[in-house]
Every structure is written in structure tokens, then in C-alpha cells.
Amino acid sequence: MEIKSDLPDMFLRPGLAGRGPLGEDRPMRDSKTFGLIARGGLVCYAIVHLLVAWLAAQVALGDKAKADKAGALQMVVAEGGAWLLWLIAAGLAVLALWQLSEAITGHRHVKARRRTVRRIVSGIEVVLYGLVSYSAVKIAVAGADDGQGSLVAGILAEPYGPVLVTAAGIAVVAVAVFLAQRGIRKTFTRELDFSGASEPARTTTIRLGQVGWIALSAAYGTIGVLTVVAAVTFDPAKAGGLDAALKTLSAQPYGGPMLLVLAAGIAAFGAFALLDARFRKI
What we know:
Elements: H1 9-12, H2 32-60, H3 69-80, H4 82-105, H5 112-142, H6 148-156, H7 161-184, H8 199-233, H9 242-250, H10 255-279
Helix pairs in contact: 2-3, 2-4, 2-10, 3-4, 3-5, 4-5, 6-7, 7-8, 8-9, 8-10, 9-10
Protein name: DUF1206 domain-containing protein
């Protein structure tokens, strides 16, 4: 049965894909050009998180620099120029489109129940990649980030605002829980191909992935909780992205050491993402 989709042909046309191990179409995966672009996008994703980790460490040590993904992208502009930011945006946009196609028509080689879970995972990755790509384009064009706080303030001003913001915060916490179990249960390894890899490389990749996904979960969980608090207290200043979360943690007792640990975890995720670019099944 033919599967209809509005996605570009390069993502769905069997002629560009070949066949999978059970005879299913494998969109895009036999395209060497796409593979190189996708792996390049994963490298960009890794670089962004390594920069976030560095900025988070600066906040832990008392620097008030903006330590969210937008701040990291602004640092890219300052150090490498807008062309590098456009490269990051393009690479992550390709990753988002790839995972969108996987969320809609992919993972047909696994059982139905697991296929649903894998497609949900792909859908979450669409959001993660897409948000960073959007931020990169926004900063490349405007040169600054408007901040999440102003967006939350606008939503809270509406009659339905508190309910909507609360729901958004709860959804972010739910994603954080999912990311934590992804690290604890090592389910991310299903997306990796270690054939030909040495045992040390395999072990290192898995350990970095475990630490990295759990650290990312802690960061997103804090963002979600702060968003709910902003809705309950009608105080949009309490909401924000990773910037607000990191600064909130730094203000707690022993916040500096905790934030340094979180920065190390995010750095581990960045290192994992580099290895992910090498071993990801594409």
C-alpha cells in the first residue's frame, strides 16, 4: 500500500532508499549525501551542547552570562560569524525533517507496540532539533533572542493563559522523565550501530549517553517546574529557558557545585552526540 505524505520526495521516495532487512522501504538511508549532512547536523548539535556546558560552568563560577542554547548560539555568532550559525541551522533542520519522516512512516521493521514508542521518540527529537534550528535562524536574522519570559507573559495575560502555561510546564516535565529513563534504561542504544566498533568505543559511548541524557533530563525538568510555578504565581519572570533554570540552581544552597555537576553532565551529552554522529543508524 502506498503511503501518502506531504514531505519532500527525497525523504520518502523508495528509489532513493532501497530496502530494509525485512524488505521495507528505508527512506533516505542509502543516500550518502543525506547521511553526511545528517551526521554533520549531529556534530552541530554536539557543539551547541558543549558550548551550553561551558556557559553553565561560567554561571556556576559567578559569571552572569546567558547560559541557554540561545546564549551558546550567540557565542557562535561572536566567535565564528553568522555563516556558521546558518550551517548549524541547516544541519539541525535536516535532522528535524529526518526524524519527522521517521515519526510518520519510519520504524516499520519493529513490532507494532515498539514502533509506536519509537515514533514518539522521533517526534520528541523533531522538537529538540527543530527548536535549536529555529533559535539559530532567529539569532542569525535578528541578532538577539527575545526570551521565553516575554512569551510566557503574553500567554498569561490571556484568560486561558495560566491553564495553557501549566499544561506546557507539565509536558516539559513529562519529557524530562522520558529523557531520564532513556539514559537509565539505555534505550538510546537502539539507534546506534556498533558493528566494527571497538569495545572501549562502545562502552564509552554508552556511558556518556547515560550520563548525558540524565543531565539533560535534570535541566529540562527544572525548566518545566519553573514554568508551572510561573503559571501558579502569575509571575512570568520565574519562567524561562535553560538560562533561568541554571541561574535558579546556582542560587540554591550548594548551587555552585550542583551546577558544575550539571555542566559536566551536559558536556557528557555533547561528547555523546559527537559519538552519536559516528554510530547513529542513518
